[in-house]
Amino acid sequence: MSLQWYPGHMTKARRELAALMPSQDVVIEVLDARLPGSSANPLVTELRRQTPCIKVLTKSDLADPEATKAWLQYLRSEPNVMAFEATTDRPQDTRQRISELTRGLARHRGPDKRVRALIAGVPNVGKSTLINTLMHRTVAAVGNKPAVTKQQQAVILKDGTTLTDSPGLMWPKIEDERGAFRLAFAGSIPDTAIDYLTIAIFGAQLVLERYASLTVARYKLAATPASAESLLSEIGRRRGAIRPGGIVDLHKAAEIFVHEFRSGAIGRISLELPPAARKDPLV
Ligand SMILES: Nc1nc2c(ncn2[C@@H]2O[C@H](COP(=O)(O)OP(=O)(O)O)[C@@H](O)[C@H]2O)c(=O)[nH]1
Ligand SMILES: [Mg+2]
């Protein structure tokens, strides 16, 4: 895959994030529950240092609950890290978790000082949605394409916590090609920069590894598809993506598959599992 956008904004994001970090009491790192590893921005890890971090696994309604459980356990074992899953289906839970976790941090501050929280995350993980949930109203523009938040903004919650939206465009780490493909499949890389067919084949391979039965059910297949390409051809045939001469239009089928994955129509699918828990590091 050639990724045609290049994160030229990275230097700017680094500078802005580095400037903001010292004034923050906590970083709320927003991760896509379907890919909590690949959707983590390496700048956040690098620049937050000892600052406590609340990792919010958003869109958990779209992710495999077992995988999310494993990720939460893994993330909670990191130093200074708290983690929970969130979905727009349960906004009150999200408000409650954030309030409990930030209250814990406020204990270390003077009596009338507000907790200052920085919201960070790569495009399209649900940062604006989270801010709106916490504010009980629309203060940040939500989009289903990456990079809607262009301007930094700060809002104050009822309990006094100040939320600052992460600055600039925090592009994900693209050196990791498989990670970049997962992000593209999930929609965190602009669609203009990707080739649907390449992404769909990559995504179909991942989905078939662990969730083949979901594709059988969704597309009413007679048998488990033998390959990503055969899954896409079946989708094309069933959805009428046929070119003159009866040839399946694989690009059309690819678009259908990618969109249905992103919307959750195929089922609850996670694209990666946490690294296996490391054995006793002292041995
Ligand atoms: N299914 C589902 N979609 C969500 C959830 N949270 C956010 N989204 C969608 O994800 C897309 C990106 O959200 P947005 O808040 O704009 O992301 P941002 O770029 O990080 O600010 C939008 O289409 C949201 O509606 C969730 O919990 N479940
Ligand atoms: Mg946004």
Can you give a write-up of this model?
The protein has 283 residues and is α/β, with parallel strands linked by helices. The chain folds into two domains: 10-165, Rossmann fold (3-Layer(aba) Sandwich); 195-263, Conserved Hypothetical Protein Ylqf, Chain: A, domain 2. Helix content is 40%, strand content 12%. It contains nine helices and eight strands. The protein has helices spanning 10-20, 42-48, 65-76, 91-106, 127-135, 177-186, 196-218, 228-238, 250-263; strands at 26-32, 53-58, 81-85, 116-120, 154-156, 162-165, 242-243, 247-248. A six-stranded mixed sheet has the order 3-2-1-4-6-5, with helices on both faces. Strands 7-8 form a two-stranded antiparallel sheet. β5 (154-156) and β6 form a beta hairpin. α6 (177-186) crosses α7 (196-218) and α8 (228-238) packs across α9 (250-263). It is elongated. It starts with 9 loop residues before the first helix and ends in a 20-residue tail after the last helix. Residues 127-128, 140, 148-149 line the site of magnesium ion. Magnesium ion binds at residues 127-128, 140, 148-149.
